[in-house]
Design goal:
Elements lengths: L15 H9 L3 H11 L6 H11 L12
Helix pairs in contact: 1-2
């Protein structure tokens, strides 16, 4: 399993669904559909998304090479 970090590429809003998809080996689109479907159920899904957006580190950018 990959580390749980928000990727720099493939983000829609905060990169949380893309990070979870990478972690669990599914596509980001599938994870987004699962999240949207879960929002129809009662619970704190939106608050959990916001918390993960703030708590998950962003993927490190590749180091720039100096001349």
């Amino acid at each position: 399993m990959a580390a749980l970090v928000r990727p720099r590429e493939g983000r829609m809003i905060g990169g949380v669904c893309a990070a979870l998809a990478r972690r669990f080996g599914t596509s980001a689109g599938t994870m987004r559909v699962v999240f949207l479907a879960s929002c129809l159920l009662p619970g704190p899904q939106f608050l959990l998304y916001l918390a993960l957006w703030m708590l998950l580190p962003s993927e490190k950018s590749p180091a720039a090479t100096a001349w």
